[in-house]
Amino acid sequence: MVENIDTFKQRLEGKMSETDAELVMFAYAIAKESHRTQQRDGGQRYFEHPRKGCIVLMDELKIFDPVLLIAFLLHDTGEDTLIWGNLLKDYDEWKKTATFRLNLICEKATPIVIGLTKPSIDNKKFYSREEVYDFYWNNMKNHNEIVLLKMVDRLINLREMGDCSAEKIAKQKKETVVVYLPMFQMLEETSYRESYCYLNNQISTTLSEL
């Protein structure tokens, strides 16, 4: 099936209120426009990535929570665009601006989008990659929804690696096994256990096929 805005919108029908569906589609439009000029490594337009993640949530996990759908649609916009502010100049100022702007769309999605946005070295709050990663991982581990969406994100990334170099595939596989899978395991003792088990199986299968 060819995916487009109509097939995406049809999935929402009867799964949430009309207002929530409109908010999801608003986030869809923002993400599509924000990533319009960007491409993935394989040449595919970048917007396919957040859309595919939402399709995994809906079709494979049967999750139709508008907050999670909005958050996943917007999860890369903070790092890749200036729509929520300039992440490179001052993280605290960016977070303040991003919080205000994201709250206009969905307050519950705001901390998830911010948590999925990796800071940059701004020489004000962060002075090294180590500081950035420590902050990013520690914040993520404190929020089940952020970890769940990061798990979906990792699955989509692995599924799309067919056109990548052997070096990049090897790097992604190692990072997944060493860094991500141990962190994802925390979901096993949460209300997302069923989703965790499914995603863990899918990630393991995809890793074995790469």
Characterize the structure shown.
The protein has 210 residues and is mostly helical. It has one domain (5-209): Hypothetical protein af1432 (Orthogonal Bundle), CATH 1.10.3210. Helix content is 64%, strand content 0%. It contains 11 helices and no strands. The longest helix is centred in the last third of the chain and has 19 residues, at 166-184. The mean pLDDT is 95.
Beta-strand proportion: under 5%
The tally of domains stands at: 1
Percent helix range: 55-70%
Give me the oligomer status: single chain
Elements, N to C (H/E): HHHHHHHHHHH
CATH architecture designation? Orthogonal Bundle
Uncertain regions: pLDDT < 50 for 5+ in a row?
A: none
CATH superfamily: Hypothetical protein af1432
| Count of helical stretches | 11
What name is given to the CATH topology? Answer: Hypothetical protein af1432
Q: Mean pLDDT, nearest integer? A: 95
Largest sheet: none
Structural class: mainly alpha
CATH class equals Mainly Alpha
Summarize the structure.
The protein has 210 residues and is an all-alpha fold.
Task: Compile the SSE list and pairings.
Blueprint lengths: L4 H8 L5 H17 L13 H13 L5 H9 L2 H4 L10 H13 L6 H6 L13 H12 L3 H16 L6 H19 L8 H17 L1
Features:
210 residues; mainly alpha; Hypothetical protein af1432; 64% helix
